Amino acid sequence: MLFFQGGKNIKKQNKFSNQYDLVVIGGGPGGTACALKAARLGLTTALIEKDFPGGGSVARGYFPVKALIEAAKLKENKLAPNEECLAKANERVNKARAQWDSSLTKRFEQLYLIPGEGELLSSTSEFYQIKIHSSKYQGEIQDPNIIDGDRYISAKSIVMATGTAPGSPIPELTIDGKNVITHEHLLDMHYNNINSIAIIGADVEGCEFAGLFNRLGIQVHLLEMEDNILPNCDQEISNSLSTEYKKQGIKIKTNTQVTGVQNLEGEALKLTYNSNTPQAHGDYYSSKTENESDKSLEVDKILVTGKRIPQLPKGYANLPLKITQEGLVEVNSQLESSAPEVYVIGDLAGGVPSANAAIHEGKLVSQNLTEPRKNKHINYSFTPYVFFTDPQTSGIGVTEDYLRNKKIPYKKGIAYFKENLRTLSLGHDNGFVKVLLGKNESLLGVHMIGHDISELISVITVAMQSKIPASKIVDLPLPHPSMGELMIEAIEEAINTRITTTG
User: Other C-beta atoms within 10 Å of 367: how many?
Assistant: First the structure.
């Protein structure tokens, strides 16, 4: 079989027959991690991916967006105009894709990589039947058996990792890729022609893009239906980012519903909204008639976030799957669906919607398939988050609001950037690390905001996963000066603080 990686024609020996122990449908972060883990553990494994190696995340998702966020710093430092920032981002993306492609080529030597879409058919007594719809993959596939027609393979087990796609949270607002956009359009835009943008939704995507556009000198209007931006984060983190964004000139409107969108002359848009709706009734859009309390703003673009549309594989209806009202697949704590030997990972499973969670899920499934006695179950308690806002936000574990609502006693400690020699030497004195301790000085949660603060989260994740008590962490001889000392200072303050009771 011939397939393409990085524009190069690579001949792949057909080591296996058309029967596999495992077929993974969807080659994003979770699917790739799952397939590689399974192959390394000895399963004959095929990975079906219709897009770029690494899936849509590498082709159009989080990776290109993060590259653009970093390139926008050139604008902030007055080193380049917007179009040069965009060119730099594209250069970085193309170079990194080529390197990623080369890396995957070596790692995929244990795998059978199949370009195209997999359609789930009926199952036999032991194997599931899968129909492969051919596709172009970094060039034209030359195998006539693929390009001229479909082919069939079978698998003992299937992992569905086809993820979700961006959608509009407002039914009346159609994504056209020109005036109304999602993150998938960011690398194709001409930023010099944009003076203002409205971002609907102030969760992670909305807040990351608000910082990006603001750095590019574009007036940002950030609309959120809840009380706060980053509504699912720790309250102090949310408040701190909101304060910083307002200082930067970003216009934030919370408790807000959009009541109408109108095309004006040229390519401008008029957006009407109401900010007097407590909690906005859980919907970004109100179909009520506009009234005197409604306000309006004119913008060049509208970017929609927060809405994800499940991308179920073709033929999923042929399997006895339980589909939720949101279009996700019901799974248990081992990511098993209601169909025997069919597993679901990533956004499609409805767990934590992040790449690192999907990777963790994929590896867990492969381990259970090869080492069933381990009987691993998914646990999202130690899944960290990193948001590339400006400044960055990161954390792991429960929030202070959660502890208060559950009436769980805790201790809190905070260490500030303005008291750390390393952050002061970098010229960044705005930020903090917040630690929440429970019984026996166990780490319940850590939440942070500040310049490059995400670099601390990996070590903290290891500490929480390993259940290392806080008293052991404070004894570590960390480098001085370093940002890691912020963690030590916050823990020491928490240890020496009176416990907070909540009723």
Answer: 17
pLDDT at 135 over 70: no
d(CA 208, CA 64): 13
- Other Cβ atoms less than 10 A from the Cβ of 358: the count is 29
* Assigned token pair, 293: 């309390």
Phi then psi for residue 367, to 5 deg, are: -65, -40
Chain segment 339-384, per-residue pLDDT in tens: 999 999 999 999 998 889 999 999 999 999 998 766 889 999 889 9
How do residues 17-35 score in pLDDT, each as one tens digit?
Answer: 588 999 999 988 999 999 9
> For 282-429, where are the alpha helices, taking DSSP H only?
355-370, 400-405, 421-425
Domain annotation for the chain: domains and CATH numbers = 19-164+309-374 (3.50.50.60), 180-280+288-306 (3.50.50.60), 391-495 (3.30.390.30)
For the cut 60, the answer to whether the pLDDT of residue 81 exceeds it is no
> CA-CA-CA-CA torsion for 213, 217, 218, 222, nearest 10 degrees?
60
Residue 140 token pair: 């034209």
What are the backbone dihedrals phi and psi of residue 89, each rounded to the nearest 5 degrees, phi first? -65, -45
pLDDT reading at 247 higher than 60: yes
How many C-beta neighbours within 10 Å does residue 455 have?
Answer: 13
Most confident of 52-56, 116-120, 397-401: 397-401
What is the C-alpha radius of gyration for the chain, rounded to an integer number of angstroms?
A: 24
Q: Show the tokens assigned to 97.
A: 């894709």
Q: Are 450 and 392 in contact (CB under 8 A)?
A: yes
Q: Residue 258 has which token pair?
A: 């959009």
Q: Is the Cβ–Cβ distance between 245 and 215 less than 8 Å?
A: no
Cα 209 to chain centroid distance, Å, stands at: 13
Neighbouring C-alpha atoms within 13 Å toward the C-beta of 482: 11
* Six-digit token string for 15: 């080591």
Show the CA angle centred on residue 129, arms to residues 351 and 131, nearest 5°: 90
Cis check for the bond before 481: say yes or no (omega within 30 of 0). yes
Average pLDDT, the chain: 82
Q: Which residues contact 98 (CB under 8 A, 6 or more apart)?
A: 6
Measured CA to CA, the distance from residue 29 to residue 89 in angstroms comes to 21
Q: φ, ψ for residue 121 (rounded to 5)?
A: -110, -165
Q: Check the CA dihedral 314-319-324-330 and report its sign.
A: negative
pLDDT of residue 110: 62
